[in-house]
Amino acid sequence: MGKYSIDPSAQFYSQLITEYEDKERAMWCYANPSPRPCFTKGLLDDLLRYYGAIEHNIKNDLRSGISPKIKYLILGSHTPGVFSLGGDLCLFIECIKENDRDRLYDYMRLSIDVLYRTYINMDVPISTIALIRGNALGAGFEGALSCDYIVAEKSVQLGFPEVLFNMFPGMGAYSFLSRRISPVEVDRMILSGRIYAAEELYEMGIIDVLCEDGEGVSKVRKFLKTLNKTENTRKSLFEVKRRVNPVSKSELIDIGNIWVDTAMRLTSRELKIMERLMRSQDRLAKPQAEFVRNPKNSATDTCP
Fold first, then answer.
1. Lowest CB count within 10 Å: 219, 229, 247, 286, which one?
2. Most distant CA pair in the chain, distance
3. Three-state DSSP state, 130
4. What is the pLDDT of residues 154-168, one digit of tens each?
5. Neighbours of 258 (CB within 10 A)
């Protein structure tokens, strides 16, 4: 992969690992959250700043009359076996126990800022691809759904387990899924709490490209060639789809407010279930073999 600085003023992201591949004009962005593989505030802050840098550089290229150096953004994970385990359960538990609605609301708004920026492609001519080589649960699945395309390896599992602690996925799941499948199927998926195999979601039309385990990166590169060949048609089709059935930021925020209110009503019993799930996240976050490259730093997020 070649080197290309998309953000000369801030080349250091504490919870992201990024690379540029000049042949396909593709940015590869791997989430590297700490202390567990979920949407920490640090990761969300990094993603928002990273998106701002991409938008700035592409718009500069366009103003200069040159073809943008970045055409595709591939979003993946640095943690083997995990794309993302969802929202920051540690933060949720703290906010609910302390009755701190404002802090939970701020987290919701930050999450939606990131997912909506992904959905609208940062207001620049770029395509986004979620590369899923590990399990994607809750908000992790929502993050993938906000992308233009989803490429997944066969063994991965995806779903919304929030119903286990009497919650629902409130960062875009219903909005994004109902543009891909029927509302009845969305209700069934969320209320069941079922975890789906990637192959089943591919048959449902939720996953766009399915590949064998270990072939995710090579499959994305092949997919980029397909996108290049049909670029004009695909871009026009996306414009049509978003005109016919758009997702607005106000819709996402309204649903997010319902999510915050629902969270603040959880009982101590339901919080204990959430705490057990958080401990499961911690077990999955233990050091594993790296498959991108060693990070140059360590984050400082902590949780009691």
1. 286
2. 59
3. strand
4. 999 999 999 999 999
5. 11
